[in-house]
Amino acid sequence: AKNMSLILEVAVLSSPSEDSHYAGEVPACMFTMPVTATVSSIAFYGFREDATLDTQEFSVRAASGSANSAVPTGTDLIYTTVGSVDATAWLTTASWISIGLGAGVSLASGSLYGFLAFNTVGTASRAMIWLINNPGNYAAGNRAKSVDTAATWAAVSSLDMPIQIYGTLAGGGGTWNPTGKVAAAGAAAGGFSYATYRAFTGKVAASG
């Protein structure tokens, strides 16, 4: 049986900054996949700023550039929305907010991708906040932002955007969850990864 696992976590560092987005502003977390997997959900660390949120839109795209200076490119590999009612149920204090990606999207080990959050009809009083590590220490990714509804992008190498990526390992490998098991290596890398977990424990199933 295939089991869903935590594939990658870009951890929340102390005293993160706030990054609101609405209308044409689109933040994106750029990341490098540590293992080939079908990604079924991605969580960001944030909150809703006001009493009501408009419909929120999320997608995954391939990236151009190098690790730590990447920006999204091309069309959506997968796209989903969270309706106003569900988005308004998000907390007004920071927490992990999980975004389901339906059947999922296959992402390749070693490749760069971006997780985008955008809202084409939002207003400043209905903004979503995605917290930023400032400065960040995730060497395999960065923050990117567009102010023209994802037409053009700017990369900010010094910033990270906390995310948790969940999915199924290619080939149906066993479940693994590195959180709390590679603390020293995770802190040095700015996040946890399958490769680090495997190197440090040697306990991952052969099929993984």
Q: Let me know the number of strands.
A: 13
Largest sheet: 7 strands, antiparallel
* Shape annotation: globular
Report how far the terminal alpha carbons are from each other.
12 Å
List segments where confidence is low: pLDDT < 50 over at least 5 consecutive residues: 173-177, 179-208
Order of helices and strands: EEEEEEHEEEEEEHEH
Q: Average the pLDDT over all residues and give the rounded result.
A: 80
Give structural notes.
The protein is mainly beta. Helices cover 10% and strands 43% of the residues. The chain has 3 helices and 13 strands; from the N terminus they run ββββββαββββββαβα. The chain has helices at 84-88, 183-189, 194-201, and strands at 4-10, 20-21, 26-32, 37-48, 56-64, 71-82, 95-107, 112-118, 128-130, 142-146, 154-156, 163-169, 192-193. Strands 1, 2, 4, 7, 9, 12 and 13 form a 7-stranded antiparallel beta sheet that branches. Strands 6-5-8-3-10-11 form a 6-stranded antiparallel beta sheet. A hairpin with a 7-residue loop joins β10 (142-146) and β11. The longest helix has 8 residues, at 194-201. The chain starts with a strand and ends in a 7-residue tail after the last helix. The model is unreliable at 173-177 and 179-208 (pLDDT under 50).
Q: In a nutshell, what does this entry contain?
A:
The protein has 208 residues and is mainly β. It has 3 helices and 13 strands.
Keywords summarizing the entry:
6-stranded antiparallel β-sheet, mainly beta, 208 residues, disordered C terminus
Helices and strands, with pairings:
Layout: E1 4-10, E2 20-21, E3 26-32, E4 37-48, E5 56-64, E6 71-82, H1 84-88, E7 95-107, E8 112-118, E9 128-130, E10 142-146, E11 154-156, E12 163-169, H2 183-189, E13 192-193, H3 194-201
Antiparallel strand pairs: 1-12, 1-13, 2-9, 3-8, 3-10, 4-7, 4-9, 4-12, 5-6, 5-8, 10-11
